[in-house]
């Protein structure tokens, strides 16, 4: 998937547009891979080169965080 400004994520194979593709990917990561996510793990899982881009994408979610700066990990918020 490739991100296009303001219109969502575009599949490189079929050119379909999905505005929720990244959210789906994050949910799949938490359900299939691990219950914690770091910037580095996200970049490896989504094949993102830039730590800055990964940080910006992570900031769009309301995660519980642990640690600071380079040791920060993200977890899904627990439902009350």
Question: What descriptors fit this protein?
Answer:
3-stranded antiparallel beta sheet, 3 helices, 80 residues, globular, two-stranded antiparallel sheet, 5 strands, alpha+beta, single chain
Structural overview:
This protein is an alpha+beta fold. It contains three helices and five strands, in the order βββαααββ. The protein has helices at residues 21-32, 39-46, 51-58; strands at 2-4, 8-10, 17-18, 64-66, 73-75. The chain has a three-stranded antiparallel β-sheet, with no helix packed on it. A two-stranded antiparallel sheet has the order 4-5. Strand 4 and strand 5 form a beta hairpin. Helix 2 crosses helix 3 (51-58). It is globular. The mean pLDDT is 85.
Secondary structure: elements and pairs:
Blueprint: E1 2-4, E2 8-10, E3 17-18, H1 21-32, H2 39-46, H3 51-58, E4 64-66, E5 73-75
What's the short version?
By secondary structure, the protein is of the alpha+beta class. It has helices at residues 21-32, 39-46, 51-58; strands at residues 2-4, 8-10, 17-18, 64-66, 73-75. The longest helix has 12 residues, at 21-32.
Q: Give the overall shape.
A: globular
Taken as a percent bin, the fraction of beta residues is 15-25%
Quickly count the helices: 3
Residues in helices, as a percent range: 25-40%
Low-confidence stretches: none
Mean residue pLDDT: 85
* Structural class category: alpha+beta
Based on CA atoms alone, the radius of gyration comes out at: 13 Å
Number of strands: 5
Distance between the termini: 34 Å
Neighbour order of strands in the largest sheet: 1-2-3
In sequence order, what are the helices and strands, one letter per element? EEEHHHEE
Characterize the biggest β-sheet: 3 strands, antiparallel
């Amino acid at each position: 998937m490739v991100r296009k400004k303001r219109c969502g994520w575009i599949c490189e194979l079929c050119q379909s547009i999905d505005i929720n593709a990244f959210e789906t990917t994050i949910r799949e990561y938490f359900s299939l891979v691990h219950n914690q996510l770091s910037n580095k793990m996200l970049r490896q899982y989504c094949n993102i080169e830039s730590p800055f881009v990964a940080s910006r994408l992570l900031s769009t979610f309301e995660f519980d965080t642990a640690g600071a700066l380079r040791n920060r990990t993200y977890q899904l918020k627990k439902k009350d």
